[in-house]
Here is the input.
Amino acid sequence: MRKNKIILLLFFIVFGSIQLAFSQNKKLPNVKILATGGTIAGSASSATSSSYSAGQVGIQTMINAVQGIKELANVSGEQVSNVGSQDMSIEIWLNLANRINELLASDDVDGIVVTHGTDTQEETAYFLSLVVKSDKPVVTTGSMRSSTSISAEGPLNLYNAVAIAASKEAIGKGVLVTLNDEIHSPRDVSKMNTTNVGSFSAPIKGIMGGVFYGRLGFFREPTTKFGNTSEFSTKGLTTLPRVDIIYAYADMASDLIDIHVKAGAKGIVIAGVGNGNMTEDTLKAIKKSYEERGVIVVRSRRVATGWVLRDNEFKDDDYHTIASHDLNPAKSRILLMLALSKGKKLSEIQELFYTY
Ligand code: GLU
Here is the structure.
């Protein structure tokens, strides 16, 4: 009788181990999906409704909706936030970056996918690319159509993102952005259309690679520093210095500079007209705010694409301004916030815009 019990116990131990081995396929990479919200987790009252609420669906429901995802990797999910990405915050960025660094330091995680709204996805991806310290793949994705929409593209985008995060090809390429069968570098990609499924593109440098039902390839490497070679880190940070963006226009009022400085801005990015231009009076106000308060101003562009060149229509040194190179205003703000968080001086900041 006792012998039978021991045999039964042994049977359960062996059977249990086989079960465990099957439920977590050791040969597959382990990919963690960190969900932050957005349209990919949005739902509407009907499949053809153009209005919906972002950030409604939980991570496990999203994973369950993607057929075949478990054949690509051992996937598991964590809900970091559930917001429309217009409500993405520095606090969530810091938590997300710290969690990613913690997960990637473990041998049990081979890659990360971040699901995110499309409105500010390029900002989050660019921020993460500067502060994630690992060669393992980190891939952000989202969707333009909500999860309940007719022809929702979120499940395929998530499938492709997991395929990239699980791949050897993506190792060492930094944070990547994938939507609509394309793979992008965060520095280069922008949301270019308010509603179209093919909204993301990289107008200056082009796409980095492609992904088609999980089959992927890269055409080029990132052209600026990121990840392990980046000097930026979130270690010890609880917030970032305030940097505001001001949109330039004909007859722009120069007192906007004083208003933002008085509100506490330590840096300002101008979404300048043309090649980062603004009224003469605004330039004089910028010069004054640097000389009197040490506020650093970056000239970016309100134009959708193109470089902002140093010393173009005037000498930047005359007004203490920085040219954003090819960075758009939102990403210029991120780089300036990180630079100020490290106490970088005006004389050091221009070089950062060429390097990162
Ligand atoms: N405002 C939403 C967001 O960014 C909608 C955009 C989207 O995810 O497609 O979260």
